[in-house]
Amino acid sequence: MPILPRTVTSPKKFIIGHDLLPQLHDHVKDFGDNALLVSDEFILERVREEALAGLLQAGLKGAVEKFNYECTDIEIHRLVDLAEQQGANVIVGIGGGKTLDVAKAVAFYLRRPVVLFPTIASTDAPCTALAVIYNQAGEFERYLFLPQNPDVVIADTAIIAAAPVRFFAAGVGDALATYFEARACYRADGINLVGKRPSRTGLGLARLCYELLGENIDMAMDAVRHHVTTPALEQIIEATIYLSGVGAEAGGLAAAHAVNNGMSVVPDLHRAQHGEKVVFGLLTQLVLERAPQAELDEVMRIIHVAGLPMTLQEMGLTRFVESEWRKVAALACDSLDTMGNMPMAVNEQDVYGAMIAANAMAERYRARHPNH
Ligand SMILES: [Zn+2]
């Protein structure tokens, strides 16, 4: 079998700043002159008054459409039809992860460029070449792997700082695992998120992601808790929206996300955010790797400062049921998941033990640093 090549993949442009909604036309005009703006309900008025008004003023055409809450095939087809009737040659998504995913899918089916404007920083959705499709009941249906990353991603720090703190913290949790998973995958010479081998650049971007979190987390949380923007907040958003996505895509995932995926079978954790569960997956991975104490201390400090849950109880677990957690361990070791990107052999028994030890480690940390 031929040896797989290494990759770096990324959006064409990543823009970060504030008051960017009225300047949307500046980034649309490079790709087309007639835009369909798919927007979350909460920001619909501003999209009309700032983004659409700016487009029209700049001599471009456009229309605004409300996203119907779930990224389903029905919703994708509804928006594809609308875009065709309108003659749109650029698709814009403004909102949370599902809105961005629907915009990516619509643009893919129409073979049009896509501009994304995330309003929260809780997942890697903005920068990756992937959309998650759900069914009408809101359950996971399939991944839609896209041939290209989004053309433009615009991060408005003022809008992201106005979102609930919990979503922001969840994005920090997801970004915190990026370096450790990329490092494991690189050491294992594993498979990255586009099915190729991890590149040194991917590992470097993931490393920078971790450094920015460590340097800026205290001041960024001050800003986001008071809904203001500061240079530290801007650096954290670069890490959570850009570096975390491209670092994971080129660098690959490992135990942290595999454990997160397994945790979906624990009913108590259904309300936990993706990034919150990834944090526990990361602690489990660090136990499996027998990480140095200084590294554990820094990771737990970042989790603590971000106000993220660290123990299973904080994440919503009311009762520990061994059979459930045996199942989590089994699912995390599924051959289709990313546990195979760990640099050592890991079986279900190893994962189960590491999860128990990770929770004990988190509880020991909390005994010394109470969670306010
Ligand atoms: Zn993730």
What would you say this structure looks like, in words?
With 372 residues, this protein is α/β, with parallel strands linked by helices. Helices cover 51% and strands 13% of the residues. The chain has 13 helices and ten strands. The strands form three sheets. The chain has a six-stranded parallel β-sheet with strand order 2-9-6-5-3-4, with helices on both faces. It has a two-stranded parallel ribbon with strand order 1-10. Strands 7-8 form a two-stranded antiparallel sheet. α6 (165-188) runs parallel beside α8, α9 (255-262) crosses α12 (322-332) and α10 packs across α13 (348-368). 52% of the residues are buried. Zinc ion (ZN) binds next to α10.
Index terms:
372 residues, alpha/beta, six-stranded parallel beta sheet, 13 helices, binds zinc ion
Which helices and strands occur, and which strands form pairs?
Layout: E1 6-7, E2 13-17, H1 24-28, E3 34-39, H2 44-57, E4 61-66, H3 73-86, E5 90-95, H4 97-110, E6 114-118, E7 130-134, E8 140-145, E9 152-156, H5 157-161, H6 165-188, E10 197-198, H7 200-225, H8 231-251, H9 255-262, H10 274-288, H11 293-305, H12 322-332, H13 348-368
Parallel strand pairs: 1-10, 2-9, 3-4, 3-5, 5-6, 6-9
Antiparallel strand pairs: 7-8
Helix pairs in contact: 3-4, 6-7, 6-8, 6-10, 7-8, 7-11, 9-10, 9-12, 10-13, 12-13
Bound molecules: zinc ion (ZN).
